[in-house]
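Data availability (excerpt). The following record was deposited with the supplementary files.
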Amino acid sequence: MSRRSRAAVARSTASDRTLVVLAGLVLLAAGVLVALLGQGVFGTYRAQRPLIDPEISSWISDNATAARWIAIAVGVALLVVGLIWAVRSLRPEPRPDVLLSDVPGSRLSVEHSAIAEAVRADAESITGVSRARVRLVGDERRPAMRMTLWLVEDADVRDVWAEVDGRVLARARRAFAVEAIPTAVRIELDAAASKTPRVL
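Predicted structure:
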């Protein structure tokens, strides 16, 4: 599956995975180094010495104020990095406009809300579809789409899919003058629409 197609299915977590892997590798390397040190690989006497070198301990004792400020600075830096990471992970996924033309001095793009609304209305006109939701994802040069369809109880899923692929998405491809728009389609039964009234 291409990167563009994956964007239609789910939000990319590549950057988060990369950061987690790098942090894990650093911690793993530190753990292996400490284990080797404890086993005496770097010398028997070195394994018996304190983990923090006496010279470093002595410098910390002699420069308590500077050491305290360094520790505070490192803690603040780690806090800032953690907050940036959390904000990046929790921020809403961008909804790109679609770029139709990027000729210098004549840039033409269509807002994502207009596209999503047009595709949604087209999807809701299909027989058996009670309501629909459409979102654009990716970026303006390589957009992808997520579509959720709620079907009534007696809807024919095959007919609905044929209409979505042959009419709704085909019309969108023609409108944007592209050969393909990666689209993830989720189909659910509309519980509200399928409820039948009780006869007393």
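Summary of structural features: The longest helix spans residues 64-90.
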